[in-house]
Amino acid sequence: MSGVLGRFRLNSLRSRLMLLVLLAITPIAVVTVLGGLREREAAIRASEENLQRLTALAAANEAQSIDRARQILVDLVSVPDLLGPTAGCNALLANVLDRNEGYVNFGLIQLNGDVTCSAVPMLHPVNLGDRSHFKRAIAERRFIAGDYVFGRVIRKHTINLTYPVIDRSGDVVAVVFAAMDLAGLDTFVNDISMPPGSILETADAAGTLISRRPDPERWFGQRVSAELLAAMRGPHGRALVVRGEDGVDRLHAFARVGAPTLTEYTVTIGIPTDLITQVAREAQFMSLLGLGATTLLALLAAWLAGERLIVQRVRGLTSVARRIAAGELEARTGIEYGNEEIGRLAAALDEMAENLQKKETARGQAERELRAADQRKDEFLAMLAHELRNPLAPISTGAHLLKLLHSDNAQITQTCAIIARQVEHMTSLVDDLLDVSRVTRGLVSLSTQVLDLRSVIDDAAEQIRPLIGARRHKVVLDLPAGPAHAKGDHKRLVQVVANLLGNATKYTPEGGHIELRLQLVGDAWQLSVSDDGIGMDARLVERVFDLFTQAERTPDRSQGGLGLGLALAKSLVELHGGSVSAHSPGLGRGSTFTVRLPRHRQDSAALPASAPAIEAGPASALRILVVDDNLDAAHTLNLFLRASGHEVEIAYNGVDAIEIAKVFAPQACILDIGLPDMDGNELARRLRRLPQTSGATLIAATGYGRQQDREAASQAGFDHYLVKPVNTLQLGELLALAGAG
Question: Are 680 and 712 in contact (CB under 8 A)?
């Protein structure tokens, strides 16, 4: 499965060809989708217009029935028998009821609310003085279409339509009413044709249903939803989508039943929105289905064509390129050259392989000659050491024997001392020569331990004391009062300090001054050796640590050298993870050599000098951000840190690292310097400006080990600087310090 997914990565030619096909089809897809949306909008607009017309028709039908009732009441008021004897009034109203369908009663209401005349016989007295339509007819002196009521006389769902009876003097003397059966009102909209799932509702001013299709009997007297009531009372300029009690979204249009002077009823018709857009959806679905089939066929064609015309040929070129990279310079593509791009690429690759084969032949010959010369040099150095030490041993023994046998002879004793000193000097030269050879070939291994640099300085000073005494130099040691813990090889560090002191002694005139100072600078111990000797010019300072480099000899130098001491010191210091530098104001103004070694924070005062270094575990689990564009390096470090109990997040570039840091708030950040979008120094500056990482411990882990690189990292805000491959013991100690802090 992973192999199939790997073929779809956009870093392959075939996937890019398919991407081009997709890009070509994208405009068609966009047009298809937009066309479907436009069709849907057009269907909705057409449905809105039809719905408005349909609703207006339903409202007109109901208004016609209400207006007919108004006309009946107007005609009744003009009949003299209405205000006559009760028997005549009852007969009149009963006759009117028989002649008009859709009504359940006609009656006369006195000003006190008593119904004194009714088309339907009353079994007991009825008073309608509390009815709002009765009160309004008297107060407003006009026709009133009342709200929904359940009749007290006829016990049915009705609306009461009232009209005031006014005498010749202009006073209201009674109110005539007509009770319209809601089932009869509903028949006036039966000829309205509606789509399946649609509803038609008529509500009074209070929002009570007086007409409903379908199932009118079940809905009479119930109130419409609050959302629908608000839409009924608002402006009726356009249709609205309202969700019904059954959970169906419907597009509703609204219309008043007649003029405001006739009724306060509102008619609404709602059509399911799914029904409106069904045709547009089906057309859009078919368009998308056709587009999908076209896209699939186009991608399949691009896949097959890309496989045959591009991928297989590029795969062959890749295979040949890898064989050439692996050293098979005789490999050739075998592709026929042509004017097309892959053919020209194959020709260039074959030409390159042929040229490399010629150069490799010449280089191999030169390399074999160089190896032979290097081997002869190593054999010469080994033979030189052997041949020099053979005569030095009896010379040294003879000198000590002469001194023992003639201890009372001052001249012989002085001569023996000279011989012993010169033998020691020659032995030192041989050791330096062999050490340099081993260091340059990577054959030196360190026996590291936690040690006190003060004891290293004491041993080195003791070793060089005879030379200092012979030249009567004044030496000042400025050492810290407490232990100066570092991790290193005691013997090799003594060798470094002794070489620096010996170098100062050689190039400082008799009676000169030498100062050795050890101090803590930042998170490193800084050891400096200063003298007031012959100094150096700028050109010599730049190459003073190169092999076989020496200052000009002066007449008072009793000890010579091969120019190996400083080169050896530099190599040994760098093996300890430190650095060494030189400075001189100029000729005749002395020199200063400075060594920087990482500080070891763990308290090891109770350990003997020979005790092995104790690996410090983390004081606590930390949130650590690892930033490295080398995936293998990042994930390997991630595994190590997680195994140590830390919580780790990884980023492969500076931008992602900043975004992760804002959320993750790491306590420590291990950053590569060479990142693709911004270098590690710029990333460190930005992290220092973030509130989430302003106090985090920043550790540079990089392949750049020059002094200027270290200085640039320090200025950018890094707390520590590690050169790849990272020493995991040292990294663990740094994280332990960060956790403890």
Answer: no
Specify the pTM.
0.39
pLDDT tens for each residue of 719-740 = 999 876 666 677 888 898 888 8
Other CB atoms within 10 Å distance of the CB of residue 665? 14
Beta carbons of 421 and 468 less than 8 angstroms apart = no
CB-based burial label for 253 (10 Å; 0-12, 13-18, 19+) = buried
Q: Closest Cα to residue 105, out of 157, 210, 174, 181?
A: 181
- Cβ contacts of 659 within 8 Å, gap of 6 or more: none
pLDDT tens digits for range 30-84 = 777 777 677 767 777 777 778 888 888 888 888 888 888 889 888 888 888 888 8
Q: How many residues are there in the chain?
A: 741
Q: Which helix (H) or strand (E) holds 730?
A: helix 728-740
Residue 727 carries which side chain, given as an amino acid letter? N
Residue 735 identity: L
Strands 474-478 and 513-521: parallel
Which of 578, 26, 16, 608 minimizes the C-alpha distance to 294?
Answer: 26
Among 125, 86, 87, 90, CA closest to 106: 90
Run of H or E including 77: helix 13-77
Provide CB contacts within 8 A for 144, sequence distance 6+. 133, 136, 137, 161, 162, 163
Nearest Cα to 126, choosing from 101, 173, 160, 166?
Answer: 160
The torsion defined by the Cα of 644, 647, 651 and 655, in degrees rounded to 10, comes to -140
Exposed / middle / buried, residue 346 (Cβ in 10 Å: 0-12, 13-18, 19+): buried
User: What are the distances in angstroms from CA 147 to CA 71, 103, 202, 253, 542?
Assistant: 19, 16, 11, 22, 107
Q: How far is CA 568 from CA 80, 353, 384, 563, in A?
A: 139, 42, 19, 9
Strand bridging mode 172-181 / 157-166: antiparallel
